Amino acid sequence: MKMTMVGLALLSIAMGSGASAAGDAKYQAFKIGSYNAVALKDGVLQEPNDGKSFLVGQPTADVAAVLKSSGAPGDHFEFSVQPLLVHAGKRVLLFDTGAGSNFGDITGKLQGALVAAGEDSAKVTDIFISHAHGDHIGGLVTPAGALAFPNAAIHMSAPEWQWLSGMSPETAKNFGLPQVTTLVGAIRPKVVPFEPGAQILPGVVEAVPVKGHTPGHSAYRIISGTNTLLVFGDTLHSYVVSVRKPAWKISFDLDQETGAASRVAFVSQSATSGQRLYGEHFPFPGVGKIVKEKDGYTWVPESLH
Q: Strand 84-88 vs strand 91-95: parallel, antiparallel, or unpaired?
């Protein structure tokens, strides 16, 4: 998500567990085949339905109608922020890291969610970064600028790492990275760049390039035998609009035309294949599928309780 956020708001997050109501939970445990997985709540962001902050080129009344048709508020968008932790054999995998301290206390709840779930940040072995926006990589470092996951390799596509490591402080602020120099300096020794589409951990994690959002944006397919889960990063943002109107352009995409084409293809392919999905910005805990209906597509969340 491009982090020129307007009207950011944090919905209250109370102490939760795997069996708690989604709105109150800090974490939610579930399975990916034989793997134990945990959705980790970092916070909730909001953008107004004003025709520029998120969607561009669409009348706000039309957007509100689509939102309300799915039971969502018509005047704004809500984006949950939820990294995913997976125990895969001896490895502990983390997919994105939330916002860290980039937005004060509006997000940055990942470490608390880890503790609540009984997890240890020092035991994370591998981090997979979808892209270099502040709500996905901010949690890589502590507020003091130290590594938040000191023993983890940080996997990021080579084009994305090149873009991030060469980003000026002025540009970085537009992407929610006010301390980009500190962040890049801290993570540089840990970054392991890969070529787009690589089998990063063969038989366990493969990268799936999705063009348009950032130079090296990657989704990740987690594989446990015949069971898979696709963590799609910012391929989709809104569980309503991104699914029902994927061709609508969004301000967060560097290449809005390509981003829209990628969404259209992703939504169609996901519905056809029945791929199980993990949406980092969809309503917590973000696990479900896209289903074809008479009037288009819809997001169907999976019950994990």
A: antiparallel
